[in-house]
Amino acid sequence: xxxxxxxxxxxxxxxxSLRLSCAASGRTSGYMGWFRRAPGKEREGVAVASxxxxxxxxxxxxxxxxxxxxxxxxxxxxxxxxxxKPEDTGIYYCAARNLKIGVPWNDEKGYDYWGQxxxxxxxx
Length: 124
Description:
The protein has 124 residues and is an all-beta fold.
């Protein structure tokens, strides 16, 4: 069992920045990253990185604005979010999974572990 704990959410104005952190109690062999659920919408993949090689994947809507990074010594994953827009508002979840060949990175059903989520609110 891997426990994930997010921090770093908050409220900012459009154009601002936030950095989310996800502390993990252990490691998985597949992707680890971020999903979000906007009000009234389904949860969607935002950005993930693969274990070991740290190959990253981003949703098109955040490409160029968000950056995922990790700190192995602390078993912590980060999401730097710049140029935030009101449509980025939502609950952001850290998620992790073991290696699953053929399961898309942004398929939430493929993830084994989830954090409780942290709220991000972007005002215009």
